[in-house]
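Hey,
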Amino acid sequence: MCLPPHCPYDHDIKLQDGKAPPFGPLYPMSWEELKALKDWIEENLRKGFICPSSSPATSPVLFVKKPGGGLRFCVDYRALNAITVKDRYPLPLTKETLNNLKGMKYFTKIDIISAFNNLRIKKGLKYLTAFCT
């Protein structure tokens, strides 16, 4: 498994003028979390989702307990999100969307595992998504 090829609609990360990329701190982890981190890194290196980096920008990582047990790897991008230029466009109205479903007979539900890992970042901007361990 590997990332899809670059395309015209790769994800763009625009920083606010004059803002430097964040350099996040390390968060403390338990032994269980450190083991999960090692396993997650090895698996995602093997899949080609991540690669070693010496980026000047980093975001800290943490784990969240899953409802059914186990740990979910998370990157805390709040500092990066705080300095990005926001896309401003209206979302569809919930009531209008639900009204459009009236009378429909079939609905589809899909569960896409690791969909976030299949988003391509625009060339030259991947360094902004680096995380520190």
